[in-house]
Amino acid sequence: MAEVSKKYFDQQFDKMALILKKSIDPIEAGLGSVESRLTGVESEMLKVHDRMRTVEEKIDRALYKQYNHLENRVDKIEKHLKLKTA
Hints:
By secondary structure, the protein is mainly alpha-helical. The protein has one helix at 6-81. The termini are far apart.
């Protein structure tokens, strides 16, 4: 059985490490790109969330205003018809 020298083993190990590094580098670059895109998506999602909250607040105010308006109309009708005791 042939013995493998330390020098030969180290050379082969370095070659394999270089091949592995060359394979991993593009993957790391791609992951960096994906990460930056996800950060952009997260930022846009937060903007959408803020806009939705603003819309909800506006709808709530409009509904409350409409409710008060209808309540006043009902009060006037009840007074006119003398249905309300207070």
